[in-house]
Amino acid sequence: MLENRYRVYSQYLKDKYGEKVYKIPIQLSVTCPNRDGLLGNRGCIFCGEKGAGFENLESSIPVKDQLKQNIEYISKRYKAKKFIAYFQNFTNTYIPLDEFKKYIMDVCREDIVEIAISTRPDCIKDEYLSFLNEIKKEKNINITIELGLQSVNYKTLEKIERGHTLAEFIDAMWMIKKYDFEVCVHMILNLPWDTEADIIEGAKILSALRVNQVKLHSLYIVGDSVMGNMYENNEFKIIPLDEYVDRVVSFLEYLNPTIALQRLVGRAPKEETLFCNWNTSWWKIKDYIDEKMEKEDSYQGKKFNYLGGKALK
Ligand code: SF4
């Protein structure tokens, strides 16, 4: 029996830093080019007014204080000593460079070992990256860029009104990989327009582009999103739970085994969603995934044999 059938993020951090490391969410008062009118006004069709940061402190609280409050709470509760400052919500590089630099400087403390910045593939620019590289060298703080991609199918990206295609993602990867940074990519495995073949292709593309971490989400539908309206009008169908479990397992089998999995199932506050995880708790779904992998002797990378000149092997 295999102990871990996929590379769990918490263990990945433990291996990297020699002890448990906790991610501290920070909320900036930022928006997104897909919401403020530059690319679109209503955002990706699944995105609600709060973005992804429903568990965060208010963005009106200064960054240093958000960090302090959260670190005090986590270190008391888990006796933690090392942390990752995680700029989580909306598009954190969609601000002027000076402002960005100030926020980054605000989180540079002794106990911060890494800074993770969530953004869109079309909001990656070399000036921001080269500043982060200076921070990495001067302060000895690792950098991870978290890119929302959600699907590798450019037709699905169009349907969800993402405002970019796969090409911008590939371009962002080239830019980021010039530096010694890690990249985490967010994917939704049950977008209504994606098939299992898209999911497998997603695992292959992320592996081929040398992504380091992946965060998988199950689609949840928030009331204040475009998709919320579509859901109420029965304009699409959501695949059943067992199919989601199958998709996660297929994705993992094709994924490079060195890639760490931050998450396999999305989480959202029940009260604010029209649909979330088939009314099943996320940890139960994770158990279903584990059980299926165990039963089928499946593991991450089982089918990872397609790179490096496969036809010549
Ligand atoms: S890119 Fe992110 S923040 Fe912007 S609309 Fe889409 S999901 Fe929301």
UniProtKB/TrEMBL annotation:
The keyword 4Fe-4S applies. Keywords: 4Fe-4S, Iron, Iron-sulfur, Metal-binding, S-adenosyl-L-methionine. Its cofactor is [4Fe-4S] cluster. Coiled coil: none annotated. This is TIGR01212 family radical SAM protein. Gene3D superfamilies: tm_1862 like domain. The keyword Protein biosynthesis does not apply. Pfam families: Radical_SAM, Radical_SAM_C. The lineage of its organism: Bacteria, Bacillati, Bacillota, Clostridia, Peptostreptococcales. Signal peptide: none annotated. InterPro entries: ELP3, Elp3/MiaA/NifB-like_rSAM, Radical_SAM_C, rSAM, rSAM_horseshoe, rSAM_sf, YhcC-like. One of its GO terms (molecular function) is catalytic activity. Residues 16-258 form the Radical SAM core domain. PANTHER family: HISTONE ACETYLTRANSFERASE-RELATED, PROTEIN YHCC.
